[in-house]
Amino acid sequence: MKALERPGRSLARLLTTAATLTAVTAMTLSPAASAAGRVAGPAGTSVCLRLLADYNAILLRHWGSDCSPRGTYHIHVWGGGRDMNYPTYTYSGGNRDFSYTWPVPSGTNICAELWYHKPGGGYSSYGLPCTTM
What we know:
Number of strands: 10
Mean pLDDT: 76
Order of helices and strands: HEEEEEEEEEE
């Protein structure tokens, strides 16, 4: 009987995983915003970085202790004629939040990229989300 139950469980896991990946991909790839211009759900999330934008301000969240290695990072943000590399910081796991004023018109596309500073030199990207102010 166990041999017959196993394929069913495997199929159920496969279908659950496929549905979850489809939903996450759809929400990540299509920016979701309410009529008031607020970012809804996981729009603006990519790999280890979440970007929320509203009322001329941005919130950046470097999240998840298993998402990226511990070490030195910086975040590059651009959009609406602005382009900034924010100061480096040390990431030691968990969530790390940063908020900044970003005065641009409503409807402006804003992107951010999370850069890991490799110990031997160079950089590696750990997220490139975009969203709309």
